[in-house]
């Protein structure tokens, strides 16, 4: 069989990388349609995925719309020539590629606020696959899995953190560190949204630097660290999850990194204008499990972070809660591969029709996760 996967962002590379590998190993033909955005290409190269670029995109709000015609001009002939049996993606590119090829388009997504993408994709997608936490009805072809998009690559049966991550970071073997991740807020679904201000970013660095080494990952690249007690997170982006797992604390105004840190058992504080009434289901669920602190109040961000850095038992309890929770989540790669091999069919293990408010199930493991399994 022949499969196309769309990787528009670095997160999409991670979402599909294991499925691509497993399908190729099973003898199928796979093409990844990639976009030059952030570190997407670096990850595609690192994982040796069979990709073809359809264009580029910057981190400003207008960049995507300016490049859209050229993107489609390259996508359409490429997917037609490849003639896939099934197409996977997260939104409009994949859905519309399904139209021009006649192949079913399966969209795997987790963000309720991306209403524009939902509207232009919904008439053409054969199936939507979302986490059990997803709070928006996408129609009769909407299915859910008990997990998160990030469990395609951070499920404990799949991910093993590198215990030597401090060496490439330039740290001593037992040196504690904080990772700060700042969003550029340049996507179309970020219009009207915001995160930490420049002054707040500086205060975060100065406060946490009194207790640990501080690394900054700034998507927009606008923060000048020369006069601040922090280092740029400038190792290969494929090492990000190892760093998230080893960090004493993660503070972010982004979405994906927050979920990743929570699923790795690292104390994480998330603060942006999405927080509050109507927040995304992923984050309300993770907060309910005491794996994330969501707050719009900056002073709470500071005080929570300092508490974590001063009291080692907070992180230990966080990791125990994570181990109790993640064992019952599905390995999403298993679901994606099964759907692919079923020709886009959704009658596979791990999927059920979307039910809105899902009953919270306990772990199906006979024993909890241990530190050795993380």
Automatic annotation (TrEMBL):
Top-level taxonomic group: Archaea
Compositional bias of kind Basic and acidic residues: 352-365
InterPro entries, alphabetized: DUF354
Pfam families: DUF354
Listed transmembrane segments: none
Region (Disordered): 350-374
Protein name in UniProt: DUF354 domain-containing protein
């Amino acid at each position: 069989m022949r499969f196309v996967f769309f990787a528009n962002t670095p997160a999409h590379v991670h979402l599909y990388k294991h499925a691509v590998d497993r399908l190729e190993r099973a003898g199928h033909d796979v093409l990844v349609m990639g976009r030059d955005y952030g570190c997407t290409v670096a990850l595609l190269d690192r994982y040796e995925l069979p990709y073809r670029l359809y264009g580029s995109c910057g981190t400003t709000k207008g960049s995507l719309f300016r490049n859209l015609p050229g993107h489609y001009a390259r996508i359409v002939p490429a997917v037609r020539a490849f003639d896939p049996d099934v197409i996977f993606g997260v939104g409009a590119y994949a859905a519309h590629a399904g139209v021009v090829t006649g192949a079913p388009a399966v969209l795997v997504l987790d963000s309720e606020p991306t209403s524009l993408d939902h509207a232009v994709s919904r008439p053409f997608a054969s199936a939507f696959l979302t986490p059990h936490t997803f709070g928006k009805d996408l129609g009769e072809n909407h299915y859910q899995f008990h997990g998160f998009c990030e469990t395609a690559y951070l499920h404990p049966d799949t991910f093993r953190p590198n215990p030597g991550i401090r060496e490439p970071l330039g740290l001593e073997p037992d040196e504690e560190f904080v990772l700060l991740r700042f969003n550029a807020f340049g996507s179309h679904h970020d219009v009207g949204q915001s995160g930490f201000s420049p002054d707040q970013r500086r205060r975060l660095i100065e406060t946490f630097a009194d207790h640990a080494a501080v690394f900054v990952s700034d998507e927009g690249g606008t923060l000048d660290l020369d006069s601040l007690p922090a280092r740029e997170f400038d190792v290969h982006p494929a090492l990000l999850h190892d760093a998230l797992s080893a960090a004493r604390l993660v503070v972010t105004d982004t979405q994906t990194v927050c979920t990743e840190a929570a699923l790795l058992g690292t104390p994480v504080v998330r603060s942006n204008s999405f927080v509050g009434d109507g927040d995304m289901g992923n984050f309300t669920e993770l907060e309910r499990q005491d794996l994330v602190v969501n707050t719009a109040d900056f002073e709470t961000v500071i005080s929570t972070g300092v508490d974590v850095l001063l009291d080692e038992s907070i992180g230990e309890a966080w990791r125990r809660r994570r181990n109790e929770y993640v064992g019952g989540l599905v390995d999403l790669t298993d679901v994606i591969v099964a759907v692919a091999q079923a020709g886009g069919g959704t009658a596979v293990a791990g999927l059920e029709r979307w039910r809105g408010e899902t009953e919270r199930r306990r772990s199906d493991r006979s024993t909890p996760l241990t530190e050795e399994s993380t």
